[in-house]
Amino acid sequence: MINGRVWKYGDNINTDVIFPGKYTYTITDPTQIARYALENLDKNFAKQVKKGDIIVAGENFGCGSSREQAVTCLKYAGISAILAKSFARIFFRNCINQGLYVIECRDAVNKIENGEEITIDFQKGTIISKKGTFAFPPLPDNILEILKDGGLIEHIRNNVKFQNPNINSSPKSKC
Amino acid sequence: MAIDQKMGKTFAEKILALKSVGSTGILPVNAGEIVTVSPDIIMSHDNSAAISGIFKKIGIFRVMNPEKVVIILDHCVPPATEKYAENHKIIREFVRQQDIKNFYDINTGVCHQVLPEKGYALPGTLILGSDSHTTTYGAFGAFAAGIGRTETAALWATDQLWLKCPQTIKIIITGKLKEFVTPKDIILYIIGDLGADGVLYKAVEFTGETIANMSISGRMTLCNMSAEMGAKIAYCEPDDKTKDWLANHNILTSELCPPTSDPDAEYEKILEYNIDNLEPQIACPHTVDNVRPVKEVQGTKFHQALIGTCTNGRIEDLEIAANILAGKKIAKDIRLLIFPASIEVYKDALKLGILEKLINSGAVIMNPGCGPCLGAHQGILAPGEVCISTANRNFKGRMGCEDAEIYLASPSTVAASAIKGEIIDPRELSF
Ligand code: SF4
Predict the structure, then answer these.
(1) Is A93's CB within 8 Å of B148's CB?
(2) Please, which residues 119-148 of chain B have a Cβ atom closer than 8 Å to chain A?
(3) What is the rounded CA–CA span in Å between residue A58 and residue A114?
(4) Please, which residues have CB within 8 angstroms of residue B390's CB and are 6 or more apart in sequence?
(5) Around B206, how many Cα atoms within 13 Å sit in the side-chain half-sphere?
(6) Residue B388 and residue B312: Cα distance in Å, rounded?
(7) CA distance B133 to A7
(8) For chain A, what is the domain count?
(9) Interface pTM (ipTM) of the complex?
(10) Residue A26 pLDDT
(11) What is the CB neighbour count within 10 angstroms for residue A165?
C-alpha cells in the first residue's frame, strides 16, 4: 500500500526527457542521477518531488532507448509507483526488474488530477482518489515479490539458494 | 479470472502456458497475463562478458543449466581493439569454468544465423536472447524474444524469468513478388506503413500465400526486421519448408509437434498486404521507418555498399547479388563489402562459385560476423560518407560515425547500385 502526491504528464513521455542521453555515460551515481530526472519535461520535478510521490501518465510511457537510468532516476528521486495508460515494453521490464511499481489503468489516468493525493493497494488492485476507487488486475505474486525485494538481482540474492542446487559447489578450476 | 474455454488460443498464449514454471501445460495463459517461464535456450554474444560480470554480482558460482546457454562470438570478430580482445578472453574463461558446451568462437558467424544452423531454433521452443533481433527464430516457429543483460544474468542463475504474454497481430501477405523484388522489400514496406512502434510489445504472425511460398531465408529476414517495428516476437507457422530446411541441415525433428494458433484465436488486429505490385523499397536516414520506393531516391551518391549481416547475409542473398554483379565491375569510386552470415554460408558460397563472381566484380569478402553493422569495426564510415546496406538499422552513428548516412535496402538494390555507383532501382539497370 502506498500513498503519495500525483505528478501528471501526457502521452509518449520518452526516455530522453526522463533522463537525457547526454548524461548516460557521465553521471552514474544514483543520487546524482536523480537530480536530472525529467529535466527536459518539468524543471520543478527534481526540486520538489517527495519520497512516495506517484507519476500518472498517458500512453506509451518510457518509449525510446532501453537505458536503465530512466528508471533509476525516478526511483532515486523518490517515486514509489508509475500509473500509466500503457508502457513501452523495455521500460516496463526495467521498472519491475529494478523494483519500481508499474500499473496500467486507463480509467484512473483519465480521472486523476495533477497534485492530488492517491492511495494504491497492490494486493487488492485498487487505486483510491478524490474521484473514486479504480480497480486494476493485481500483479501476480511472483512479480510482487521481485518488487518487494527491490528488483530482480536483489530478489535472486534473497531466493536463489532454494532454487539452484549448484549454489554451494565452487567453480571447477581448469585454467 | 474467468476463463472462456471455447475461445481459441494464439501461438504465444499456448507456448507460454507450456513453458511456464511448474505448469502441466493445461493451465491457460491469456494475452496480458504475466507468467514465469523456463526457456529452452538462453542466447548471448560478445555481451556475455558484461553479463558474466552481473552474474558474479548475484553471488552464486554456477550457471544453473549450462546446457541451455548458447554463446556465440560475432559482434567484433576478430577483435579490433585490446578492450574487445579482453572481452573475448573473459568469455572464453567463463565458458570453460562453467562447462558451457554450446560455445562458438570467432570462426562461426552471426548469432542469429548460427543458432538455427546448429539446431537450437526449433519449432515450439522458447528462446530468450540478449539481443534485439532474437525475433529472427520465429521463422522456425519458435517463441523468441530479446531481453536485457541483467535478465540474462538472472536466467543463467535461476533458469527462470517473468514474461508478459503479448497480444497477437496477424499479418496476411498475398501475391507474388516481381523480379528483383525480395522479402526485404516486403518487410521494409510494412515497417514504413506501420511505423517504428507499429506493433510495440505485440506478437506478429506472418501468414498467407506469399509466406507459404517464401523460403526460410526470406522468413528469417521478415522476422529479423520485425524488431524494427517494436515486435516482441515474430512468428511463421512451421510447415514442410521448415521441415525440409531442418532436414537439409541434419537437424533431427521427427518427434516435434509444436503448438500453433487455433483458427478461432483472438487477434488484436488482422492486417492484409498484397504485394503483386510492390516495388523495391529503401529505408532512408536516419530511421528504419523512413521508407520510400527506391525510385524516389534514385541517383543518390554513396561511398560504401554492404551485403550481409543477420538480415541478408544468407546464401540466397549472396546469390542474388552475385547474379547481378557477375561479369560486371562495381563503380570506380565506391567500395563493396560482403559479410556472409556464417561460415556455413561462406563455404556454400565458395562451392557455388558465388564468391568468385563477387570478387571479380571488385567486392571485398570479409569474415562471417556483424562487421560494421553496429559500428565496431571492419568498414566504419568517415564523416560525410553515405552507405547503402542490407542490414536492419540506419540510426545516426550506427556505422560508427555520427555524420554519416545509411540507407537500407535489399541485396538486389545494393548490388545494382554498386554497379551504377549511385542508388538505382535494380529493375532499371540495363543488363
Ligand atoms: S549483424 Fe547487426 S543487427 Fe545482426 S546481430 Fe550483428 S550487430 Fe546485431
Answers:
(1) yes
(2) 147-148
(3) 13
(4) B184, B306, B307, B308, B309, B311, B312, B313, B317, B408, B409, B410, B411, B414
(5) 38
(6) 13
(7) 35
(8) 1
(9) 0.85
(10) 74
(11) 10
pLDDT mean across residues, chain A:
87
What is the extent of the structural domain holding A97?
A: 2-159
Instruction: Give domain status of residue A175, yes or no.
Output: no
List ligand 1's pocket residues with C-beta within 6 A.
B 75, 110-112, 131, 133, 309-310, 370, 373-374, 391-392
- Enumerate the β-bridge partners of residue A5: A117
Strands (E), B112-180: 126-129, 143-146, 161-164, 168-174
Give the closest-approach CA distance of B220 to chain A in angstroms.
23
Among B33, B58, B201, the residue with its CB nearest the CB of A153 is B58
- Identify the structural domains of chain B with CATH numbers, from first to last: 12-22+32-273 (3.30.499.10), 283-428 (3.30.499.10)
The model carries a pTM of 0.91
CB contact under 8 A, A97 and B151: yes
Judging contacts by C-beta atoms under 8 Å, the chain A residues touching residue B198 are none
Domain assignment of residue A80, yes or no: yes
Residue-wise pLDDT tens digits, B341-368:
999 999 999 999 999 999 999 999 999 9
Residue with cell 509466406: B211
Could you tell me if B308 and B337 are in contact, meaning their C-beta atoms sit under 8 angstroms apart? yes
Angle subtended by helix axes B216-226 and B240-248, to nearest 10: 100
CB neighbours of residue B57 within 10 Å: 12
In a domain, A165, yes or no: no
User: CA torsion angle for B247, B219, B77, A26 (degrees, to 10)?
Assistant: -140
pLDDT of A172 reads 41
**A41 is a domain residue:** yes
Q: B48-58 vs B82-97: helix axis angle to the nearest 10?
A: 50
Of all residues in chain A, what percent carry a pLDDT higher than 70?
89
In angstroms, the first-to-last Cα distance of chain A is 51
pLDDT in tens, chain B (431 residues): 444 455 899 999 999 999 998 766 667 899 988 999 999 999 999 999 999 999 998 988 899 999 999 999 999 999 999 999 999 999 999 999 999 999 999 999 999 999 999 999 999 999 999 999 999 999 999 999 999 889 999 999 999 999 999 999 999 999 999 999 999 999 999 999 999 989 988 999 999 999 999 999 999 999 999 999 999 999 999 999 999 999 999 997 776 789 999 999 999 999 999 999 999 999 999 999 999 999 999 999 999 999 999 999 999 999 999 999 999 999 999 999 999 999 999 999 999 999 999 999 999 999 999 999 999 999 999 999 999 999 999 998 899 888 999 999 999 999 999 999 999 999 998 76
> Measuring CA to CA, which residue among B132, B88, B90 is closest to residue B107?
B88
Question: Above pLDDT 90, what percent of chain B?
Answer: 89
Residues 6+ apart with CB under 8 A from B198: B191, B229, B230, B289
